[in-house]
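note to self: dont lose this again. the chain is below, predicted strucutre after it. 360 aa total, dont forget to put it in the shared folder this time
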Amino acid sequence: MMSHPIYNFCAGPSVMPPEVIAQAAQSLKHYHDGLGIIEISHRSPEFMQIIAESKADLTQLLNIPEGYQIIFMQGGATGQFSAIPMNLLGEAKGADYIQTGVWSEKAVEEAALYCDVNVAANTKGNRYTTVPHQASWQLRDDAAYLHYTPNETIHGVEFTWVPKVDVPLVADMSSNILSQPINVSDYALIYAGVQKNIGPAGLAVVIVREDIIKPSRHPIPTIWNYRKMIAEDSCCNTPAVFSWYVSSLMFKWVLAQGGLKAMAKRNKTKADLLYAAIDATDFYHNPVEAHSRSRMNIPFTLADPKLDAEFLKKAQAQGLYNLAGHRSVGGMRASLYNAMPIEGAQALVDFMKEFERAYG
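---
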């Protein structure tokens, strides 16, 4: 048994606060009237309360204004790659997409099944290491919306600014939602798979300004139909009850920590610690341009790739788990989501310095 804490740097499913895990574990055995949370009906008064509280807490966290609806849907963010053009195109033929990493690339590929996709900017040629300046974007005049990914989980690229466009702005915030305050009014639609910064896999959150949902020229399957899901309180089918419940616990946890301003301060501290350690030596390297670096997902490489396996082995022996980079890029990656304590980032930095002394 390890004598030191375990810190989980996985990009998703990701680290959860111990107190949330403890409460969820207890609820598995007993939630209401002798039943565990995964046994209760999604039509029961108890689950109706979870729905109401989760919406209220998320509205408070993000200061969601009137005119927006919150939908909890299955299929993760990947499901939304299709649902968005289905629900937002209306009579339009196409939409603009900004491609800055693997996940926005996947969104482009999926949307192309439903509409004419204009990739207005694409940094694949730069190996997804930067955010393109808006002045370089080639936007179309008749786009139904503009889609972008504020934070790319795999390549560690993050927008530090919000695009200003004349069409509805759609954002995939799967890996940076609730990490800092945002102005929801800047967006027509925000969506996020919950398994990174909110809860266990199995659910996606959609925050949509109701007036942008357009009648479709083609039938939309019920589980992807925003209007039907809104009308049925996200329960057109049996929802992912446990994922939804744990997400509701996470909303309360973030509120108890001081809300999004406190999360932003905490997340900046963690990211600054790790970037400072990487930049202080030639032994480690982060490929992303400084102005585009992610606070949530920090990829880095070792000067000698032959040391990668040893680094991961010794890191795990020190309780530092899931630091391997994505299979498509290799190297290392540390994900510093809300639930990762500052102590975890410091433990990683301390280990990196120790490893360099031994192998540098």
